[in-house]
Write a structure and sequence with these properties.
By secondary structure, this protein is of the alpha/beta class. It is built from six helices and five strands; from the N terminus they run βααββααβαβα. α3 packs across α5. The radius of gyration is 17 Å and the shape is globular. The N and C termini lie far apart (38 Å). The protein binds flavin mononucleotide. The site of flavin mononucleotide has 11 residues, from α1 and α3.
């Protein structure tokens, strides 16, 4: 599978601040990556074919840009392209509480065809690590994008003998 990654200017700083994962390592995971002001990138054009776009996490600022067609970054331009070409756009907002402006922008984006799925993990799997919570959200996003994955124990499926989940070892204290 080919992936095209765009990390916003602020996102580049927050990856290192919040996750302690070096930005270079994140960028290397993608087949191609671009700066958020690189409007010459293939994904800026509807003639470049791709199946789906995920914005994760989607800040309230980027949500606003997407909902209102204000394509001043490569991320918001690629999202605009995804919508106009009738492809799947998945927005994963991460914010609380939500203002009426945010809620209205979510409605606008949904009406335009986007899928809105807040980063809100399930707890029925009894998560033990931060990775369990993250994998739960990531698995649901991949499902929406039509990408097969076995990141989580699905409700109603027999328990897997051995966990295939990656773990950083961070425990949740109960
Ligand atoms: C430590 C930190 C955490 C942030 N977390 C969020 C967040 O969870 N949700 C959000 O909408 N904005 C958050 N922001 C604010 C955004 O980073 C800011 O609105 C930025 O302009 C978004 O730009 P971008 O959408 O191009 O990445 C955070 C900022 C900082 C410094």
């Amino acid at each position: 599978m080919e992936t095209h990654l765009i990390v916003s200017k602020q996102g580049r700083e927050l990856i290192e601040y919040e996750s302690a994962v070096p930005l270079d390592r994140v960028l290397k995971e993608a087949t191609f990556h671009y700066a958020d002001d690189d409007f010459m990138a293939p994904v800026a054009s509807g003639s470049f074919r791709f199946d789906a776009m995920v914005i994760v996490p989607c800040t309230m600022k980027t949500l606003s840009a997407v909902a209102n067609g204000y394509a001043d970054t490569l991320i918001s331009r690629a999202a605009e392209v995804t919508l106009k070409e009738g492809r799947k756009l998945i927005l994963v907002p991460r914010e609380m509480p939500l203002s009426l402006v945010d809620l209205n922008n979510m409605v606008r984006a949904k009406q335009a065809g986007a899928v809105i799925m807040p980063a809100s993990p399930g707890f029925y799997n009894k998560p033990k690590t931060i990775d369990d919570l993250v994998n739960n959200v990531v698995s649901r996003i991949l499902d929406q994008a039509g990408i097969d994955n076995e990141l989580i124990q699905r409700w109603g499926e027999p328990a897997k003998k051995k966990s295939t989940l990656p773990s950083s070892g961070h425990k949740i204290v109960r």
